[in-house]
């Protein structure tokens, strides 16, 4: 490539020197000093072209275009992530406008009512939640559990919707009628006692007698799965 460039440089310099009235002979002994930066800048497009066809596969224009494409790809990924966040927020706002009872609050990604005063047995607690327009809480992930626990006083028990009333040891969600998507038992739980058929939350999950009077957590606005 450099031999080709030298030949082109000599030809270009001869063109400039031929304009000299004093001498019509083109003598190029030191192309760099005689021609200077101007000539080399003039040759850049030619050098790019030669380099491309000699196997480099990329000229300066290709390099800049590829860099621009990488930047565009990064921007597209960032916009897609932002769009997902906005969609999630819009979904939550839509639920809040469409049918979330006024006493329910957004905790994590769900709407909950935490009863802090009135203690009821598990059946009465479920009936209370239904009358409010919800149901006993159906916690679906560790992140959701952490968000709820952050709202609860320590060493206090709250009914949730899990039970094994139909078949001993086969825990089901009363809300969905299916096995719970998420469970987080305390150590040595469940005890599987004869009368301990309903589940409550005290940071982790415990089985207890369904007739026990306990505080409870209601949930509304979720899509049952």
Automatic annotation (TrEMBL):
Stored CDD domains: CLECT
Gene3D superfamilies with a match to the protein in the record: Mannose-Binding Protein A, subunit A (3.10.100.10)
Pfam families: Lectin_C
Residue ranges annotated for the C-type lectin domain, each copy included: 107-219
Source taxon at top rank: Eukaryota
Residues of the signal peptide: 1-24
InterPro entries linked: C-type_lectin-like, C-type_lectin-like/link_sf, C-type_lectin/snaclec_domain, CTDL_fold
PANTHER family per UniProt: MANNOSE, PHOSPHOLIPASE, LECTIN RECEPTOR RELATED
Name of this protein: Accessory gland protein Acp29AB-like
Source organism of this protein record: Drosophila suzukii (Spotted-wing drosophila fruit fly)
